[in-house]
Amino acid sequence: MADKLSEQALVAAVADSEWVTAGETLVLDREFADFASAWAFAEQVAALAETANHHPDILAHGWNKVRVTLSTHSAGGVTQLDVDLSRAIDALHGQ
Amino acid sequence: MADKLSEQALVAAVADSEWVTAGETLVLDREFADFASAWAFAEQVAALAETANHHPDILAHGWNKVRVTLSTHSAGGVTQLDVDLSRAIDALHGQ
């Protein structure tokens, strides 16, 4: 099972990324031109989550925004699983 | 533009439904067997939203749950647009 990352490892993991730490989670906020584009991104994140068998919270809100929240519930915080998924999301085509 | 519904109309609109009122919104919480089923529902809601050009907040969370939150921002509360979309969501095949 993945272990919760140290504060230091967490800071290093989000450095130079759009992700921020919020409590025991990693959070990404993205804004798009319209709902269709926002939802297309949400779908890509959901597909990656299924592939990784690791499921973030995905919120489509305000018609053009998406918030992705990553955490490993079994570890009570952010693990390497979350960092790996955050990087896969960052690598999505066109993001 | 759609007008905000009266408290009385709102109570009548959610009677005998899974929807609850929360502040100036209508909220539906659904739980599924797995992420794939939860996401399939979220996608159906998103498709209805695009068709209606009325966009609820859609949250996929806790790997198998979906929360849909309806409100009409321009009216500052729940309007007939929200009630109509809630009924379209209720009418989704297999729900």
Q: Output the strand order for the largest sheet of chain A.
A: 1-2-4-3
User: Low-confidence segments of chain A, ≥5 residues, pLDDT <50?
Assistant: none
CATH superfamily of chain A: Transcriptional coactivator/pterin dehydratase
Shape of chain A: globular
CATH architecture of chain A: 2-Layer Sandwich
Q: Could you please say which CATH topology of chain A applies here?
A: Gyrase A, domain 2
Q: What is the subunit organization of this protein? A: homodimer
* Count of distinct structural domains of chain A: 1
Tally of contiguous helical segments of chain A: 3
Supply the helix-strand structural class of chain A. alpha+beta
Percent range for helical residues of chain A?
25-40%
Number of DSSP strand runs of chain A? 4
Order of SSEs of chain A: HEEHEEH
In whole angstroms, the N-to-C terminal distance of chain A is: 30 Å
Strand content of chain A: 15-25%
CATH class of chain A: Alpha Beta
Main interface: chain pair and counts: A-B, 16 and 16 residues
Q: Please, what is the average pLDDT of chain A? A: 94
Described by strand count, sense and barrel closure, the largest sheet of chain A is: 4 strands, antiparallel
Radius of gyration of chain A: 13 Å
